[in-house]
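Readers outside the structure-tokenisation community will struggle with the description of the input data as it stands. Showing the layout once, in full, would remove most of the difficulty. For illustration, here is how one protein appears when written out as sequence plus structure tokens:
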Amino acid sequence: MRVNTRGQFITLEGVEGAGKSTQLSYIKSYLRQAGKPLVVTREPGGTPLGEEIRQILLQPRTGGMADKTELLLMFASRAEHLAEKILPALENGEWVLCDRFTDATYAYQGGGRGLDKSLILDLENLIQGQHRPDMTIFLDLPVEAGLERARQRGELDRFETEDIVFFERVRQAYLDRATQLPEIYHVIDASHTIEEVKLQIQDVLDNFLLHH
């Protein structure tokens, strides 16, 4: 009888307008062509309850939302996501590709909102235990260029309407995470063409598959 080994957990992060949706589709195709049983999901969201929380978080609202409310909603969605989708898939030997994960919380709620990183770490440990991504691909782009791309897409969500200073803090928080976690993080220069970005990602994935 074949015993499933644990699957690999890959997350994709990016600043606004970095081309995350396009590259997520490419990574999905790459891994499936490599024969990996794959679950593709996103945060906030990924489960029926998580998607309801996503709507609350992203919908523009006149009354605003307290920063700690936002943080707790992110982790409420994540707790459900881990329990109902991510951990069962990994234990079943499937690979999981997730569009954003806890690094986004460090970037947006920690960097952007200025919440204490130790508070985020406490919630991360509470909700995730020892579970962390095996690899994180971060699409990096100067903030002004990214926001211009985002504006061209059309209607903006609640986060995308923040000012440029907010997104400078978000980007810096991601780059700080990359420095702190060099064995997990792979920073991709997303200022190039789509095909050039794909080639950078392909190199990262080729190397990862050699060892997994």
Observations:
- Helices lie at 20-33, 48-58, 67-91, 102-112, 117-128, 143-153, 164-180, 194-210.
- Residues 14 and 166 are 15 Å apart (CA to CA).
- The domain at 10-210 is CATH 3.40.50.300 (Rossmann fold).
